[in-house]
Each structure stands twice: as structure tokens, then as C-alpha cells.
Amino acid sequence: MPDPGLSRLPLVGLTAHALPEYRERFMQAGIDAFFVKPPDPEAFLATLQRLARREKAVQTEEGAALSRKLEATGSLGLGTIREYAGDDPETMVRLCDAFIKALPQYAEQLDAAAEKLDLSEIRGIIHKLRTSLVIFGASEALALAEALNETAKSGDTRAGADQAHELAKRLTALLDDVKILRDGARAD
């Protein structure tokens, strides 16, 4: 995992591949922005400008308190989500809202697949969930998902079902932390 204290050159993907799985693959690789050829010139320029001027935001006292609160839980990596959002509060709120909507659905799907002992379905859910966990720096949940994926690959249905239920509980627990993060972004 890269040191969040070190700056890095932003990466912008420009490709002819418009399918969603390509976007996901690029984002998992660490691309900061993604455009399908030919890009909208105004949107492309605006993104380049945003990335060029992106610097670590000086945290307000409220932002520092939020950081301390979330770091104490250890469930989310604030540096990761801020990097993906470009330190833009509006973007962070949108990302949080989408994740808040998706978390209960993923948890419900995992529990249902575990009840059916359907390891293939569990692996499909993990595949969809993985990018969100990376974006939010949810390293503990990501580690559970990766371990579950390996168990599912091995074909151990009982262990896979137990791990799927455990991951579903972890996702439900993440919900409160993501709401705190969203509320903090709204205050910015």
C-alpha cells in the first residue's frame, strides 16, 4: 500500500474501451480519472485542472475531529476516499450516498447467497463490492472479502457461508462510519 503522505502524479485514463468492466479495471489499478475517446473537451480540461491543483486540504478543526473519530474505529481510510474524491466535498457526499445505498444490498445478497451455499454468487458479489471497499479504504472489510474469495475458490461451502455472513455483518457496521464521513463532507 502506498504511503498516503507521499504525493504522486495523478493518472488519467483515456481509452476506446467504454464497457463498465474496463472502467472498473482501470480504477482498481489506481487511475484518478477515466475518459472514453473522444472525451468531452470541457469535462476533460476541468478534470485535468482539478487534478493539477489538488493538494492536501488543510483540515478545519471539524475535519480533524472527524478524522480522529473515524481513525479510532479503523474501518475507513480517509486518505483513500479523499484522494478519489479529489478533496471535493460534493463528490465525497455523492460517493458516500452511493455506498450507503449499496452496503445493505451487498450485505443482504451475501447473506442470501450464504444461505443457498452458492459460492459462485458469493464470488460475484465480492467482485462488485471490491472497488467500493478500496475507494473507501475499508481495509478490514476488504481483507474479509479477499479471504472469503479464496475460500469460495477452494470450494469449502460451509466455511464460505460462515465468512459471507461475517462480511455481511462487517458491511452493516461500516454503514454508520460512512454516514459520519458523509455528514463531515457536507459540513465542509
UniProtKB/TrEMBL annotation:
PROSITE patterns: HPT, RESPONSE_REGULATORY. It comes from the Bacteria. It comes from Alkalidesulfovibrio alkalitolerans DSM 16529. Gene3D superfamilies: 3.40.50.2300, HPT domain (1.20.120.160). Residues 1-52 form the Response regulatory domain. Residues 88-188 form the HPt domain. Keywords: Phosphoprotein. One of its GO terms (molecular function) is protein kinase activity. One of its GO terms (biological process) is phosphorelay signal transduction system. SUPFAM superfamilies: CheY-like, Histidine-containing phosphotransfer domain, HPT domain. Pfam families: Hpt (PF01627). This is Hpt domain protein. Transmembrane segments: none annotated. The modification Phosphohistidine is found at H127.
